[in-house]
């Protein structure tokens, strides 16, 4: 796990400079939280994917450092609820539901607290994160801060141009219509994010939209990774064609992947149509026989089989 160790060393230097008032145990806990439980995954990432992973760690750290690390537990929790309830889409959806419900005395904050409570107790990803945070540190104050930062980042993840929290609110509506609304006792205000969080055994099942929302998010991530991979392989193949076959072959590939017809490519390159077909044959030969076996053959075949 060379890459993970390099990332950890860079974060140590950054935290020593950025958080001098916190001791080494806090720094190490934050680093482990940022890297995640599966640190071997960094070795499998392409350079563009690794850059995205680094940006994601920077984003999570900013959330923690700016809003939760220095705040007391109660103020930090209130900050999370205020942050999420300020989202226009979430606020309007909850207000509309309250206006149409029997209990019109409830506030956006009341409902949002219940949605977050359900998220922490029933969402598989959040349960995994809570368990990992418990392994990173035994400090209850730091643990709460890490859980809150994780919760904010997770709730704001985009799925089909909407925050994941929107799907959790729809999930909450379905559950409340089926079994009645739950209440969040005022005395348990902070307990929601404490180390005592555990799945509710009485429920016995995953929430209705957990699988759907997570699957959609994972699909979006997979598509983004596939696009990055496609871009990387395409660039490599273009360089290969330009250097080892014919610069015109590289130009043919660019135009072909844009959806241009052979006739249009001939006009763009200002060459006879017969030469364009010869370029196509050359590209196909080198793609299938030489380049593809070493560089994602299924992707190369898919592009050329359009």
Descriptive report:
By secondary structure, this protein is an all-alpha fold. 71% of the residues lie in helices and 1% in strands. It is built from 14 helices and two strands. The protein has a two-stranded antiparallel sheet. A hairpin with a 2-residue loop joins strand 1 and strand 2. The radius of gyration is 26 Å and the shape is elongated.
Outline:
This protein is mostly helical and 306 residues long. It has 14 helices and 2 strands; from the N terminus they run ααααααααββαααααα.
Topology of this structure?
Elements: H1 2-18, H2 24-35, H3 47-68, H4 73-85, H5 88-100, H6 108-122, H7 124-136, H8 140-155, E1 158-159, E2 162-163, H9 164-179, H10 210-244, H11 247-257, H12 262-269, H13 273-291, H14 297-304
Antiparallel strand pairs: 1-2
Helix pairs in contact: 1-2, 3-8, 4-6, 4-8, 6-9, 7-8, 10-11, 11-13, 12-13, 13-14
Computed structural class:
mainly alpha
| Helical content band | over 70%
Largest sheet: 2 strands, antiparallel
The averaged pLDDT comes out at: 75
The number of helical segments is 14
Flag low-confidence runs: 178-215
Shape estimate: elongated
